[in-house]
Every structure is written in C-alpha cells, then in structure tokens.
Amino acid sequence: MNVGDELPVLEIEVTRTLIVAGAIASRDYQDVHHDPEVARQKGSPDIFMNILTTNGLVGRYITDHFGPTAVLRKVAIRLGAPNYPGDTMVLTGRIEAIDGPTAVVRVTGDNGIGRHVTGTVTLTLPAGGTSARGTS
Amino acid sequence: MDGMDRTGDDDLFARLKAYEGRPATLAGTGKDPVNLPMIRHWCEALGDTNPAYTGPGAIAPPTMLQAWTMGGLAGHTTRTPAYDELLGLLDEAGCTSVVATDCEQEYLRPLRPGDEITFDTVIESVSVRKTTKLGTGYFVTTRTRIHAGGELAGTHRFRILKYAPARRKKAPADTRPRPVVNRDNAGFWEGVQRHELLIQRCADCRTLRFPWLPGCDACGGLDWDTVRAAGDGTVHSYVVMHHPPFPAFDPPYAVGLIELVEGVRIVSNVVGVPYDKVRIGMPVRLEFRRYDDELVLPVFRGELFRGGLS
C-alpha cells in the first residue's frame, strides 16, 4: 500500500428503496427522504439520499476494500449534488497519507448530475499489513 | 454552495450569532441502547457485509454514530429552548427548508450491543447569510459528544443549511425557448412556418447540408437552393433527458439525432413513443407541432418495432 494508490471504484445504484431504507435505518424521518410529493413542494425534483446514508456508504466503501480488521477513526464528508432515485453514484478513493498503521483516504462520489460527496477517511490497519483485497 | 452576501445590514445574523456556544441538547439519551437488530437493518439497507458487524463480538458500524442519537418520529425531549429558538428565528425569516451539508465524525472507541448512549450538543457556529443554488440562508454547525457507559465514544460535527427555497422561475418561462433566427437560417424557419423542413443544397457541388450554414463545407460554394425533406428518417442516436428539468420541458423525454432519408441529420424530439422505448434505428416520420401562438417545431414520431425488441 502506497500513497497515491487508487481504490477500485464502487458503483452504488441509487434506488428509491436504498434512499428510503437508508433513511429509516438511520432513523431519519425527514419527509424529503421518503415522500416525493412533499419533496417537490419543497423545491426538490424528487426524494434524495440523506447524509447519514452517504456517510455509511463511504464507511462501507473503505471497509469493503481494507477488510474487517480495518478500524475507522474519522469520516468527514461534504455533500454537493443530491443523490436522486434512478441515478448511480460512483465512489472512488485515493490514499493520501500513511503514517505507521494509519492511512488517510480521500473519497469522492459522483452521480449523473455532479459530485455528490467529497470526503476524507482516516483508518488504522492491524500490524503486519492489510487484509485489503488486491493490494499488498 | 458558495456565494456570500454582505452582512452589514443583516440584523437577523446578529441575532442568530448570539446562539453560538449555547447548548442544543443537554444530557440527551439514545432511544435504544446499541443493539444488533438496528445494526442489521443498517447493514441490510447499505449493503454492508462487513463480518465485524455480526456475530458474538459484533461492533456497530462506526458511521452509525449519529443514528444512535436520532429522535425518530417521536423526537427528543432533551432539545434545549435555545436550539428551537434559533430554528424558529430562521423559520420566521422564511428559511423553512433544511439540507445537511457536512458531517465530520471521530470514533474514539467502538460501540457494542448493550452500550447506553448519552450525548450533548452545542451550537458551534452560525454562518453569515449565504446564497446557494438551493436558496438563501444560513449554515448552522453543531457539535455533539457521544458517550457510552460514561466514556467518550465519538464526536460528531454536523452542518445544515437552513434556507428559503429559491423561487422556481415560472410564468413566462413556461413557454419554450425561442429559436435564434438570423440571416443565415431565416429560410429554414420560414419553411417550418409553412410545415416544410428545408435542407440546404449547394448550387455548385449539389451537396446537401444541415443545419443551415452560409457556405458549403464540401466545396466552399456560397450559392444554394433548398430541398424539401420527404419526412422519413431513422433514429441515428438519442439521449433521454431526466435531469435537470427546464421550464416548459417535462422530463423524462427523448432527444433524437434523426437521420433523414436525404442523408442529413437533425436534432429533435422523438414523440409518440415512450421515452424508454426509443431505439437506434427506429423509423420516424416528420410532423410539425405547435407549442404556442408563435412557435412551431419539427418533431419526429417514432414507430415501435414490431416483434423483436420490446
């Protein structure tokens, strides 16, 4: 594992089911995440993914790659273009820094209308390297 | 999400600013202790198959941190008057919509089933008035410290934009945009008014050209006449417009690059078939559609393939 290494991309189909299931699993009952009619009244073309789901997907992207022994220390994200139903979000990651067992990964998630999320994840890996798939 | 307004005469900002540093939640408690069913629901929803989140030694996904503090449908009773006042001021000012923009979490120790959650939230900052694509409003940042069993387990900084939605342009914008008519293409639009689709033809080399141009791309000739299109064509290529919606357009709709039998191509709407049934090679037939008192446009009516594709 080296600074500059790119993680394999992860494509997330942004289905209506994912948006609603993610909102409810995160106990977020804001109507704009499940009620299209109200979302439109509030000026949005449709329901959109809540930030907690995006946060969870960014965490999943990292642990999918580095394996179950990786420990998330920090996740910081900023949202841009909303994730609407029917879109696809493509997550990419790049290792920005390594300090002993700690790595910092820069993550972006783009959808059909722009950049949905930018973020930085700090994680620690167990001694003796990583169990990451496809890296050494 | 940029763009800053001048703050000189923003009385509201001064009132909002006074809430910085005040608590938003005091001694909040999680509605449920950390538990396996909620963890499983989260993992199912997000497609997270990390084995660390299942089995006897399971931990909660760290990114669930905020979920344990959520009030759910019933809400929290531990929210302070200060935070409600702040939101109320914004509501009164027309900033009735909310969108979350930033989330920064630090995880100090894993949360495990059985952990009882307590938390405190402070209003960290209120931005000056900002104008964004969504509308004009204020960013409110809170910081939450989450404890489990009396021990600090994580911190969570959260930023929302509380805003007055930008008014969608309606009224005159409900009509389609007008074509730009100039000396080089006026003849084309005059033809459309008569329900004729005219293709330019070079007077020197006889090459057909579309869209209309002052000169011939093949020989450079400047003289031309026109040929009236027979009206038959096929979909050479197409896109389906879903987003963003423009006034007077009702997405989703299909935009086709139509190859006319004469050999030139024209961009237009494909009508008469559902947007998701348009296919490359689909035969189409020219027709003219009136959109309002002034505007007539050539469009192409598609014919669904019989048999085969569906």
TrEMBL record, chain A:
Q: Where is the MaoC-like domain positioned along the sequence? A: 10-97
Q: Name the domain of life this protein comes from.
A: Bacteria
This one is known as Beta-hydroxyacyl-ACP dehydratase
The UniProt family comment states: Belongs to the enoyl-CoA hydratase/isomerase family.
Membrane spanning residue stretches: none
SUPFAM superfamilies from the UniProt entry? Thioesterase/thiol ester dehydrase-isomerase
Lineage, top ranks = Bacteria, Bacillati, Actinomycetota, Actinomycetes, Kitasatosporales
From TrEMBL, chain B:
Known Pfam families for this protein? Answer: FAS1_DH_region, OB_ChsH2_C, zf-ChsH2
Sequence ranges assigned to domain ChsH2 C-terminal OB-fold in this UniProt record: 227-289
ChsH2 rubredoxin-like zinc ribbon domain sequence ranges: 189-224
GO MF term (any one): DNA binding
SUPFAM superfamilies in the record, alphabetically?
A: Nucleic acid-binding proteins, Thioesterase/thiol ester dehydrase-isomerase
Sorted alphabetically, the keyword list is: DNA-binding
User: Which PANTHER family does the record associate with it?
Assistant: BLR3430 PROTEIN (PTHR34075:SF5)
- Put simply, this protein is called DNA-binding protein
Query: Which species is the source of this protein?
Result: Streptomyces spinoverrucosus
